[in-house]
Each structure stands twice: as structure tokens, then as C-alpha cells.
């Protein structure tokens, strides 16, 4: 077979459609001020919930749990968040950390009640339940610690739990994950937890550590650091739902698909998890293991439950638009179930967001002189670049160069490799794809569990995956609604 490419007029030129450059989405902070940079906005304007938090608490109180030898380091870590720190990494992005109270409003202190500080022995073998394996002893110690904290729940706002590196062999096995089990225990007791390991004590970049932990502790204690500012073309009363599926128990025997959905408003408020266990039998078990899905009835039930959560937060009003995100394609029955549940909603978008794609691209700078060719740029494709590939699908570079954020003209988060886009595929909905692409881009900035400019995937995907993973590893967690901060 002749594999040579034809020459001359028989050779067809390959062309891609024009791309769109989406603006960096803005975030809303105190006093209605907007900024595209999350840390700069916090520093200059204060957190979105500044006035509300100031009205009910002057201090965030921290309980502690961990081995005796790490107690001093945990206390020093909490104390360090009250101090100023100059950035020593990511200088083009990270501003100076002004201290917890100066940044967020309330002070940060260790809980006064001695009972809010649970001390474990340093040796796993010295934990209760002798004769059990190390993982079971850690699990029992965590359950006991949460129970003891429940008894003094009024004396603290968030618990910092130290899981030392020396315990790593027992904290993560094929059948046990101490982090996920702790989150599940905390969720049942309505106790937010912040897990730290030994690396938190020795992390060299103190400003970055302070930004990261301070935002997380503020959120877990009930604060809201920022929300989405209004997006052009997006109705204010839009609700976002992220779906993730997990097979409960041993994947070789599991027959029930668990659906986890995360719901919140257009401005980023009202984040709630919904854990829902499918009731209809799985017709094709092998297919469900490869690509979990819901029946029409189950999709209708879980979305109706999500809609009720939205209405409970918004005085009974229904959203004018709902966008549903998941990482796998929507089966026809799932689309029909969504249509059933959201029958009264004017606009419903069902979007698959695929992250494992082979597409790559290089940014080309314009020629310096007439007649010259363009040259590869020194930075990746701009974040927010959208390239349609069909009438219902587009590539979106949620990771890439963000020059509007940097103090030096360019900023590529991580600074390594060529960023890959995500693929947005619409299974239901109408209108220009730029709208769901802009929403997805904005939602990459709503992960309050770190100090980064963005997560490569929208928070609808990231947080629903987090709950699905927890349910898969902690199958005893009751199917219920939970505030998202309990799983952060």
C-alpha cells in the first residue's frame, strides 16, 4: 500500500476552526469587590463572609488530635498562621501573608478546654484494641477521638489531626484509608477536620503553607473566602451539579452503583454533598464496572433531591438554569431522567468533562517582522483558550499561561510540561458552547482547599469525585446530605 502523502493540488490542507479566548473569571470578595486573583483579592478586600463571620465569632478555635511527640509541632504550626510571612516561592503569584486575623478577620487560637486536645501514644502498638492489626487500631483511635470531641463540641470550631509519617503503613492499605475514614467520622459528628502530616511541619515555603492552611481552616470553621462574580451571559439563579459514581465494596462483587452529587448556587454558595445509592438493578454489571451509570428513575431521584436542597437554601425558588457535570458520557436514560426531574427548569445542560485526552497544542507568537513566520512562544497555550471540535464539543485549556494574574507578565501554574485541555461534550442543552466553557473555567477557581489559582477540573467534578472516593473506601457512611466542608 502506498503510504506517501499526495503532493500538489491533491493534497488537502488540514485546518482547525478559530479559537476563542475566554477572559479570566472574576471572584467576589468583601464589600462587593472583584478580583481575578484569589489571594490578592483576599488580601486587598477581605473574605466574602467577613461581616457575617465578625457578627458571630471573634476567634476560630482549634482542637488537636495526634501522637504525643507531635503536639508541640502542631501547636507551633497553628501559631505560625498568626504571623506574617514573605513568599519564597511562586513570587509572580503568591503575595505576602499578613497573618490570619489581618487577612480573614477572626483570630486563630487553640481551644481553651483541655478536653479538646486528644493525645495518642507515639507507638501504634500502644493504642487500644491490642491484638488487632495496626490499621484497625488507628481506625479505633480515630473513632474514639471524634467521640471525645463530640462531648466538648461547643469549645472548638475545627480539629487539626496529625497522622505522622511513622504510621503511614497503617494509615493507607488496600482496605483502609485513615484520611477518608476520619472525614466520614467527622461528617457523622458534624466536626470539620484538617489532616496534617510531618511534611506540614518542615515545608520550606512558609507563606504558601500559611495561605493554604488558613483558607482551609477559615472555610471549615464556616467562612466563605470568595464566591464567583457574575459571569457574562449566565443567569444569576443558576445551579451547578457534579455527579460521580462509585461501586460500593469490593469491585469484584459490587452490584450497586452509588451516585454522589454536589450542588451549589451560581455564586458558589450552598455547597452540599448528596450521597445516593441507586435502587434499580444494574442490567450490565461489567459495563457498570467500567463506566458506572444510573437508570432513568435513579437519575430522576438524585436530581430531584439535589433540586430540593437548592430550594431549601433559596426560599423555595427554583433555578432558571441547571448545569450537570460528570466525567463520563450521559446515557439516553440519564438524560431522560434529568429532564424528568428538572421539568420546570428553562435551561438544562448535561456536560461530559473529559480530562484524559491526547490533545496538545503550542502557543505561537506573532512574527516580529513582516514576511517572517510565527514562532513558538515561551509559555504554554493561554488559560481560557477554547477550540470547538464539533457542534457539541470543544477543547478548553483550563490549565495554561495566565498573564493577567502575574506580577511579571506570565504565570503558568506548576511550570512543568505541556498542559492538556479538557474536552467538553454537551448531551443536552442549547446555546453557544462558550457559556458552559466559561462556567467550567470559573468553577476551576472554587476549590477552597488550596491556595492555587485553579484546579485543572471544575469543583463540581473534583468535589463529587472526593465524596465518591470516600464512599467507595468507607461503605458504611450513611447516604445523606452533607456540608462539603466536612469532606475537605
Layout of SSEs?
Layout: E1 20-21, E2 27-28, E3 34-35, H1 38-45, H2 50-56, E4 59-67, H3 71-80, H4 100-104, E5 107-110, E6 117-120, H5 134-150, E7 158-162, H6 168-171, H7 178-189, E8 193-196, H8 199-202, H9 206-220, E9 227-228, E10 238-247, E11 257-265, E12 272-277, H10 285-290, H11 296-313, E13 321-326, H12 332-341, E14 347-354, E15 364-365, E16 375-376, E17 385-388, E18 393-396, E19 422-428, H13 434-443, H14 459-473, E20 481-483
Parallel strand pairs: 4-5, 4-6, 4-7, 7-8, 10-13, 13-14
Antiparallel strand pairs: 1-17, 2-3, 2-9, 10-11, 11-12, 12-20, 14-19, 15-16, 17-18, 18-19
Could you walk me through the main structural features you see in this protein, from its secondary elements to its overall organization?
There is one protein chain. This protein is of the alpha/beta class. The chain folds into 2 domains: 49-220, Response regulator (Rossmann fold); 227-486, Nucleotidyltransferase, domain 5 (2-Layer Sandwich). It is built from 14 helices and 20 strands. It has a 10-stranded mixed sheet, sandwiched between helices. Strands 4, 5, 6, 7 and 8 form a 5-stranded parallel sheet that branches. A hairpin with a 5-residue loop joins strand 2 and strand 3. Helix 7 (178-189) packs across helix 14 (459-473) and helix 11 (296-313) runs parallel beside helix 12. The longest helix has 18 residues, at 296-313. The chain is globular, with a radius of gyration of 24 Å. Residues 1-11 have low confidence and may be disordered.
Amino acid at each position: 500500500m502506498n503510504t506517501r502523502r499526495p503532493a500538489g493540488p491533491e493534497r488537502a490542507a488540514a485546518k482547525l476552526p478559530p479559537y476563542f479566548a475566554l477572559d479570566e473569571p472574576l471572584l467576589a470578595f468583601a464589600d462587593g469587590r472583584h478580583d481575578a486573583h484569589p489571594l490578592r483579592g483576599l488580601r486587598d478586600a477581605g473574605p466574602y463572609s467577613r461581616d457575617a463571620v465578625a457578627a458571630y465569632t471573634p476567634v476560630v478555635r482549634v482542637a488537636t488530635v495526634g501522637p504525643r511527640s507531635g503536639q508541640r509541632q502542631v501547636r507551633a504550626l497553628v501559631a505560625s498562621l498568626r504571623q506574617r510571612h514573605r513568599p519564597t516561592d511562586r513570587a509572580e503569584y503568591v503575595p505576602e501573608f499578613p497573618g490570619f486575623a489581618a487577612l480573614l478577620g477572626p483570630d486563630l487560637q487553640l481551644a481553651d478546654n483541655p478536653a479538646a486536645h486528644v493525645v495518642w501514644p507515639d507507638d501504634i502498638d500502644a493504642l487500644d484494641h491490642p491484638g488487632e492489626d495496626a490499621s484497625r487500631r488507628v481506625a479505633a483511635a480515630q473513632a474514639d477521638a471524634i467521640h471525645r470531641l463530640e462531648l466538648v463540641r461547643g469549645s472548638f470550631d475545627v480539629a487539626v489531626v496529625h497522622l505522622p509519617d511513622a504510621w503511614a503503613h497503617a494509615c493507607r492499605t488496600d482496605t483502609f484509608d485513615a484520611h477518608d475514614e476520619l472525614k466520614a467520622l467527622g461528617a457523622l459528628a458534624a466536626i470539620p477536620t484538617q489532616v496534617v502530616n510531618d511534611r506540614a511541619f518542615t515545608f520550606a515555603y512558609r507563606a504558601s503553607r500559611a495561605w493554604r492552611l488558613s483558607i482551609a481552616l477559615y472555610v471549615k470553621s464556616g467562612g466563605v473566602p470568595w464566591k464567583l462574580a457574575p459571569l457574562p451571559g449566565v443567569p444569576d439563579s443558576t445551579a451547578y451539579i457534579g455527579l460521580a459514581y462509585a461501586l460500593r465494596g469490593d469491585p469484584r462483587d459490587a452490584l450497586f452503583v452509588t451516585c454522589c452529587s454536589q450542588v451549589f448556587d451560581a455564586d458558589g454558595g450552598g455547597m452540599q454533598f448528596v450521597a445516593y445509592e441507586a435502587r434499580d438493578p444494574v442490567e450490565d454489571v461489567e459495563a457498570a464496572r467500567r463506566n458506572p451509570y444510573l437508570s432513568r428513575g435513579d437519575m430522576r431521584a438524585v436530581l430531584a433531591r439535589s433540586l430540593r436542597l437548592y430550594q431549601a437554601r433559596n426560599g423555595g425558588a427554583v433555578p432558571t438554569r441547571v448545569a450537570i457535570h460528570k466525567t463520563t458520557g450521559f446515557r439516553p436514560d440519564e438524560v431522560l431522567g434529568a429532564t424528568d426531574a428538572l421539568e420546570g427548569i428553562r435551561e438544562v445542560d448535561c456536560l461530559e468533562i473529559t480530562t484524559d485526552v491526547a490533545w496538545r497544542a503550542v502557543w505561537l507568537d506573532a512574527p516580529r517582522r513582516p514576511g517572517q513566520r510565527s514562532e513558538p512562544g515561551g509559555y504554554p497555550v493561554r488559560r481560557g483558550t477554547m477550540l470547538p471540535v464539533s457542534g457539541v464539543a470543544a477543547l478548553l485549556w483550563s490549565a495554561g499561561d495566565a498573564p493577567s494574574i502575574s506580577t511579571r507578565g506570565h504565570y503558568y501554574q506548576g511550570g512543568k510540561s505541556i498542559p492538556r485541555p479538557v474536552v467538553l461534550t454537551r448531551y443536552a442543552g442549547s446555546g453557544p458552547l462558550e457559556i458552559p466553557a466559561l462556567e467550567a473555567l470559573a468553577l476551576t477557581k472554587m476549590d477552597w482547599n488550596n491556595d492555587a489559582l485553579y484546579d485543572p477540573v471544575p469543583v463540581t467534578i473534583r468535589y463529587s469525585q472526593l465524596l465518591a472516593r470516600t464512599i467507595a473506601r468507607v461503605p458504611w457512611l450513611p447516604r445523606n446530605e452533607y456540608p462539603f466542608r466536612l469532606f475537605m
